[in-house]
Amino acid sequence: MNAGMVRFLKYLALVFIAIGMAAGYAWWNYDAIVAAILHPQTSAASASDDSFSLVTADGHHFALSELDAAIASFPAADVQQKPLVLYVHGFGPEPDGDFGLYTMEELAKGAGADVIMFRWPSWISVREFPVLNAKAASERLVALLRQVAERREPGGTLAGRPLVIVAHSLAGEVLRHVGEADAALPTGLAARILFAVPETGLPGHRAWMEKLTFADEIFVFINKDDPALQVATTMFGEARLGRSLENLDGSAEPLAANADYIVLDPESWRHYFFVSGQRNEAIDEVFGEILRRGSAALSNRYLRREPAGNAYTVVGPGTEQPEG
Questions:
Q1: By C-alpha distance, which of 66, 131, 129, 55 is closest to 99?
Q2: Residue 267 pLDDT greater than 80, yes or no
Q3: β-bridge pairing 61-62 and 53-56
Q4: Does the keyword section mention Metal-binding (predicted)?
């Protein structure tokens, strides 16, 4: 091998080492890198009517005013006994794309329910985090819930059907504004709300969550390893409700008295932990049972009650609580 080739191979090795070091830095500091690009929305909210819709798991879209048509699109068999899951999605450009529809199918199977997505403008650009759009979405969501309340009256198209709301990620910010608006929705409108790693601030959340009195039960699922919420923590400089029950200074945050908190431990980096293939056996069972049964599922073998009383940690498999 001549001297020129030796020099070339040395330079090539240095290039590969530099690339490896850069990749390693990006891996360990991805939250700071993304947060340097992504910033909270400051422009006017995108609140035109065509920015919002109802979506069924087969991909059909309906205007928010077409709730009856969306309900009528479901198979009629046993419809009076089936729950209705209202899925409020999080941040992203195509919430009703293939993965979003798959997520709805998973929720339908897990709850034995019909599922409708509340689609809102959750994407502006790779640089803007749509927090103002989330506030605008909360106003439309309240109007939709009032429609649902009317149809739950005796003789209505939703009479006798339990309503379950699944709010994923940035949908936590949407529901925060619903609580802060104190919209006076009727008590018992929703059987339960499941906050799946809510992307909203931890400090002070108790105040608005305790105003969500239209839900009989509230569950907050927390994943300390969630990478999306790690980015948000860096971006806002504040602990996120879906990632921790402690503030950044280590102080414990007061919990809402009307909620139960489920800490997903052990858990991985999966942001969609509630979708099949994205979770482990224990989380699969716990989320599915709470989705179907609510607080009756808190005695699950994989749940360990914490001293806080309304906080639980997912344990196992292999370390589950003894039965009996």
A1: 55
A2: no
A3: antiparallel
A4: no
Q: Is 6 buried (19+), middle (13-18) or exposed (0-12) by CB count in 10 A?
A: exposed
Look up the pTM and report it.
Answer: 0.87
As a whole number of Å, the end-to-end CA separation of the chain is 74
Q: How much is the pLDDT for 39?
A: 87
Residue 187 token pair: 């008590």
Q: In this structure, are residues 246 and 252 in contact, taking their beta carbons and an 8 Å threshold? A: yes
**161-217 confidence digits (pLDDT tens):** 999 999 999 999 999 999 999 888 999 999 999 999 999 999 999 999 999 999 999
Cα–Cα distance, 70 to 57 (Å, whole number): 11
- Answer whether 56's CB lies under 8 Å from 74's CB: yes
Q: Which CATH architecture has domain 41-314?
A: 3-Layer(aba) Sandwich (3.40)
Residue pLDDT, tens place only, 131-155 = 999 999 999 999 999 999 999 999 9
Domain edges within the chain: 1-37, 41-314
Q: Which residues are registered as beta bridge partners of 202?
A: none
Evaluate whether 220 touches 195 at the Cβ level (below 8 Å). Answer: yes
The answer on pLDDT for 231 being more than 50 is: yes
Q: Are 152 and 180 in contact (CB under 8 A)?
A: no
Calculate the CA 275 to chain-centre distance: 11
- Residue 279 to residues 106, 266, 303, Cα–Cα distance (Å): 13, 10, 15
